[in-house]
Recover the amino acids of this structure.
């Protein structure tokens, strides 16, 4: 993955879920505030998508047809500058949140999606990714992830 391409392509997220209605719901929330949402329907497709179009934040359904959020997380942490991972689930609870955060994920979003909560999580994850990007690259080039137009 070419991290410079991530820094130059602002406001792109990847959502991984087998549910079309969830993709549509996130698009309705994110597009009006300037975020672009790429879609994948499983782990393998997500990895392929990230190799083609890097993203600073990946939102992933807890359970996928070809694995789970952990499957994707294990692949992401092998990347040189991994995206922040936000897990989503209809069964989101404190236990899932603790597991996600303890394994290095960023956040858990419950479903159904609430615009305010989605935007808070995405903005926070992207801000953290952006901050880490700048530190890793000595502030030479500022990533353009944060604060969509």
């Amino acid at each position: 993955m070419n991290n410079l391409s991530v820094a130059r392509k602002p406001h792109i997220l990847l959502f991984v879920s087998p549910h079309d209605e969830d993709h549509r719901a996130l698009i309705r929330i994110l597009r009006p505030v300037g975020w672009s949402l790429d879609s994948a329907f499983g782990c393998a497709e997500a990895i392929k998508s990230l190799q083609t179009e890097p993203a600073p934040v990946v939102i992933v359904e807890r359970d996928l047809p070809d694995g789970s959020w952990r499957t994707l997380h294990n692949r992401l942490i092998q990347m040189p500058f991994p995206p922040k991972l936000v897990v989503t689930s209809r069964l989101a609870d404190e236990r899932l949140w603790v597991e996600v955060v303890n394994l290095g994920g960023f956040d858990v979003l419950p479903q159904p999606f609430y615009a305010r909560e989605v935007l808070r999580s995405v903005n926070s994850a992207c801000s953290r990714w952006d901050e880490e990007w700048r530190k890793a690259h000595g502030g030479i080039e500022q990533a353009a992830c944060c604060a969509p137009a």
About this structure: DSSP finds six helices and seven strands in the chain.
